[in-house]
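re: that chain from earlier
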Amino acid sequence: MSLPRHQDPIAAIATAPGRGSVGIVRVSGRQLGPLIQALCGRALKPREASYLPFLDEAGVAIDQGLALFFPAPHSFTGEDVLELQAHGGPVVLQLLLARCLSASLGATSIQNQTCLPGLRLALPGEFTERAFLNDKIDLAQAEAIADLIDASTEAAARSASRSLTGAFSKEIHKLRDALIHLRMLVEATLDFPEEEIDFLHKADAQGQLTRLQEALDAVMQRTRQGALLREGIKVVIAGQPNAGKSSLLNSLAGAELAIVTPIAGTTRDKVQQTIQIEGVPVHIIDTAGLRDSSDEVEKIGIERAWDAISTADAVLFMHDLTRTEFSTYQADDEVISCLLTTKLNSNVPVIDIWNKADAIDLAVMPTPGLTLSAKTGSGLEALRLRLLEIAGWQPGAEGIFSARERHVQALQKVTIHLCHAAQHLESQAQSLDLLAEELRLGQNALNDVTGEFSSDDLLGVIFSSFCIGK
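^ sequence. v structure.
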């Protein structure tokens, strides 16, 4: 799986762009001793911070800071790693990075008088990729690093931290070990057909498979919750002009994000804000009012509204209770309802939101849907709970680990293969060859989660989403 580029020493600025009190330049590669000598003027003790000047080509200090050297294999990447902690000015860090790149070309080993291969700039995620390739972490842990950096809620950060420490991987390994043991029994039966001993029956293969499916279901539930914490759900607010869409966005966000006026067509473009409900990111999108319009700008906004609706995980269809008695308003709502039915997948829920409950006295509340007042906040808590229900969130779930949609899909494949395996095992004419093949495919799907047998294309997609310097 290793590519020629993985042999190159790499360098990058590991801290975020911009000014800061401290900035870090990181280098990883084989035999960095000559480079360290050129940059620091002396050798460094392993895993011990040294305060010293970082030298340019003429031996003049670029800056003073801490240098840390982690010799292979006891480092994050499994290679020699050098970290230079300097003052966090962008110019200083760029000078230091340039010095690393130029020093590597001229750094000469005292022992063999050969120049080190030239450093190059690291690709996005390449430090973490090398940690994975050198068996310091598995693929699920590598992805957890990016998830921890990108976490938008405290719950998402905690779940990513659990995955980074290996909680998710341990669950996958338990499933894989149980599956391997079951495969061993089936293969033994296939290898020794002349034996009278029924390996599968005596070893309770049926019971083992049942317990494996139950354990898989439990892991799948926690994986879905972890993916939800990472991805969240996309909720689009739709409806006629002046139904209170922008007011609802502002109330949910707790800030005046969208302009609210009595003038129809005020919202011309999408306004988006991410909020969190029980730690779940909810991406709320306010859209232009849906109606026939001759205004070219408003027409573009309405087109964008339908584009947003078509990709939603849920749609809040806003109704104005102060206008529902008018036949023209009802007719327009019915048209929008029909269009929503045609443009959305059948599994995307549409929640009817009856707004402006504070403005009228209702003896009987409209059903179905939720009645609320975006102005006063009445009914918002019921809406939040409904959104969590749609997302499939289970409040109070403990031990959730960070996961991605690809993990969910991989576990779904395992579920399917184990279901087929159970059918073959229960069949009167047991097809052991097919049973063994389904178990093998299930194990391969599990391996995809932790990266035991992942293609280079998959690795490229995963690590390209990382930060430079990670």
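The first helix runs from residue 33 to 40.
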